[in-house]
User: Fold this.
Amino acid sequence: MISSVAAVVVTYYPEPSLPERLDTVLAQVKKVAVVDNTGDESAAGILAQLHTRGCHIIKNPANAGIAAALNQGVDWAAGQGYEWILTLDDDTRVFDGLVAIYTAALQSELAGCRVGVMNARYLDVNTGTLGAEIPGKKYDDQWAEVKVMISSGSFFSIETYREAGRFQEEFFLDWFDHDFCIRVRRCGRKNFMYARPMLEHELGRKTAHRIPGTGIKVTANNHVAKRCYLITRNLIWIIKENFFKEFGLSTVYIAYIAYKFFIVAFFEQDKQNKLAALRRGLLDGIRGRKCSAADIIKNGRMR
Assistant:
């Protein structure tokens, strides 16, 4: 039985409801490590509540980015002897039984596989729709092999983490999870998605729109300009690194970049700054330009 499980939760200006939300996680794992990226003392009260609940707190003096914070948490858990990791964003709500589903599958349906990363589908809190598409028709209690997945809700072994390599901290916030999943598969492991939604999660501040004259529905994520920069820059990095090895996935990423430009141009606010950020990210990605976390977070929050 797999019992040596720790959760790593990255916080950034966490909501007052976080301690209650993490109670569900604390009931499913041996330890929760909270890595706080807030950078000031505004989260001190919430972190104190989490410490009282038994969480291990790692406080960063500035926003180090989600990738770096996850590395901190996973490295701490590995040093404490934990063998399996559940990674979560601070705005994700986990349903009861999630970790039990993961561990049961490792001993039954997926027992014969070299499992890399596991996750479950999620309900988008903004739209109420299901997130994380899976190939083919799958029933609720089935697993589907997938190429990539988001970090929140992901479950993997320390062995996998060491074999594939740590999360790339230069990505800071966006697409580092896809990059990790690609590297995991390159090690000969397989990633799996559980068909039943077992989390509630938020990707951006989604709003629904229709393309005039067509009736076609589209969704805007409404990311701030800095996120727009990271989205295009980091995707270009992934495409450059994996274009021929992951041709199908690369074409999806290219289509997403074009879609992002279109959605921002026609349906989002602050479009001038966001479009400029998308273009700058595109060019920096092509040039291979990297900048520090301090440069990225300068002049305000990332959300």
Q: What stands out?
A: The longest helix spans residues 247-267.
